[in-house]
């Protein structure tokens, strides 16, 4: 017979096992991130540190009226506020992104709770989701090594998807608008909102106007201190042409299969017409998918929303020109949720995260072990496999509905 104090201890462990495991996950993942806090990426040295110094020496929050860098206003507001803190700028910027790593994982947990609300093991699956997301190499390298902020916009995209699943559409568009205000790459998630609209027809196209309205509201700090409204809305337009000289920048898109890859995994753009053709083909595929949903009156459930969302991000990044580095980040995270609901297809999220991690290793550590054309072929094969699964799942759900 065990001592009474030991019995109480075991009872405590049993009662709070979920909270204990969650706490241990946070501790372990934090320790991993701490190891990278002193690491200075090329992006930080060349861009982020320079923007930070411009803000600090030109009025801090009042410096927002000037043209600084190519990030949108909300992140520059965060940088400006950090200049008031007695913390090293490198560490402070990373701390912000790390905080959002955990908010992003929390959002992933909530999505799993929504998807598996009738599953008695939902707590376990939610915990696994949190654990995997916080320990994804691309997630902790993005925030703690690269000093990037992709977890910020992805957090808000996940909350928008959560409310899309809950059919609370106004909230979904508000969170989507917040995400868009932080990063242009949020538009990779836009197709799923259109497809849900065509499938369910229970919200208006007017809801889409919430996105630019939220972007305007989040730009107000800069507008108030004197930045012209036109400049606030031209930031993303400038980004779309910033890298027009390259078909891809360290990203294994379809162009890596057919064109010569130069040093640093750059693929030069031989003509403007070619990049326009790539954009046109991507839009044709998305428009064709939307037309199919509309004509065939396709209905989708919650699991299909996640599946189609992941597919659309993958197909867009694979086919669009001018993609680079971290553009698959949102797919890395959503693939974890995909794995939870389709565990037998585990190789898809593994492949997605491998493809994304490849670009991180090349950029951060200047190591190219595998030719990018091989990685691009893998990307294309995974998209084909996932397209097959998606078509089968859509057909199966239509039969169930009938």
Structural account:
The chain has 402 residues and is an all-alpha fold. The protein folds into two domains: 1-224, no CATH class; 243-402, no CATH class. The chain contains 19 helices and three strands. A three-stranded mixed β-sheet has the order 2-1-3, with no helix packed on it. It is globular, with a radius of gyration of 22 Å. The mean pLDDT is 93.
In short:
This protein is an all-alpha fold.
Note the topology.
Elements: H1 4-15, H2 17-34, H3 42-57, H4 73-82, H5 89-115, H6 122-135, H7 137-145, H8 150-165, H9 169-182, H10 190-200, H11 210-218, H12 220-224, H13 229-242, E1 246-249, H14 255-258, E2 266-268, H15 272-295, H16 302-319, E3 323-324, H17 329-341, H18 347-365, H19 372-401
Parallel strand pairs: 1-3
Antiparallel strand pairs: 1-2
Helix pairs in contact: 2-6, 2-7, 5-6, 5-7, 5-8, 5-17, 6-17, 7-18, 8-9, 8-17, 9-11, 10-15, 15-16, 16-17, 16-19, 17-18, 18-19
């Amino acid at each position: 017979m065990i001592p009474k104090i030991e019995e109480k201890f075991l009872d405590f462990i049993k009662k709070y096992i979920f909270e204990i495991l969650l706490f241990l996950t946070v501790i372990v993942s934090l320790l991993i991130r701490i190891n990278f806090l002193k690491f200075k990426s090329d992006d930080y040295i060349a861009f982020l540190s320079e923007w930070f110094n411009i803000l600090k020496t030109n009025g801090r929050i009042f410096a927002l009226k000037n043209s600084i860098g190519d990030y949108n206003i909300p992140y520059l507001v965060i940088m400006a506020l950090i200049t008031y803190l007695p913390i090293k700028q490198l560490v402070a910027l990373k701390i912000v992104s790390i905080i959002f790593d955990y908010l992003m994982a929390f959002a992933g947990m909530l999505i799993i709770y929504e998807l598996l609300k009738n599953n008695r093991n939902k707590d376990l699956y939610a915990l696994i989701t949190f654990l995997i997301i916080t320990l994804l190499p691309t997630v902790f390298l993005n925030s703690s090594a690269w000093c990037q902020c992709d977890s910020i916009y992805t957090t808000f995209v996940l909350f928008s998807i959560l409310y899309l699943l809950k059919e609370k559409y106004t909230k979904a568009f508000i969170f989507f608008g917040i995400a868009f205000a932080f990063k242009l790459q949020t538009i990779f998630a836009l197709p799923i909102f259109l497809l849900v609209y065509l499938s369910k027809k229970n919200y208006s196209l007017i809801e889409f106007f919430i996105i630019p309205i939220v972007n305007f509201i989040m730009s107000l700090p800069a507008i108030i201190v004197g930045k012209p409204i036109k400049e606030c809305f031209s930031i993303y337009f400038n980004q779309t042409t910033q890298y027009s000289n390259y078909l891809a920048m360290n990203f294994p898109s379809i162009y890596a299969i057919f064109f010569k890859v130069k040093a640093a995994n750059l693929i030069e753009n031989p003509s403007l017409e070619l990049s326009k053709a790539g954009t046109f083909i991507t839009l044709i595929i998305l428009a064709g998918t939307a037309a199919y949903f509309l004509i065939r009156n396709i209905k989708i459930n919650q699991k299909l929303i996640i599946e189609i969302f992941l597919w659309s991000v993958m197909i867009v990044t694979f086919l669009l020109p001018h993609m680079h580095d971290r553009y698959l980040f949102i797919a890395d995270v959503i693939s974890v949720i995909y794995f939870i609901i389709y565990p037998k297809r585990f190789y898809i999220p593994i492949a997605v995260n491998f493809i994304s991690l490849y670009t991180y290793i090349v950029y951060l550590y200047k190591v190219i072990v595998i030719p990018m054309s091989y990685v691009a072929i893998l990307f294309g094969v995974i998209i084909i496999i996932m397209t097959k699964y998606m078509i089968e799942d859509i057909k199966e759900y239509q039969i169930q509905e009938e």
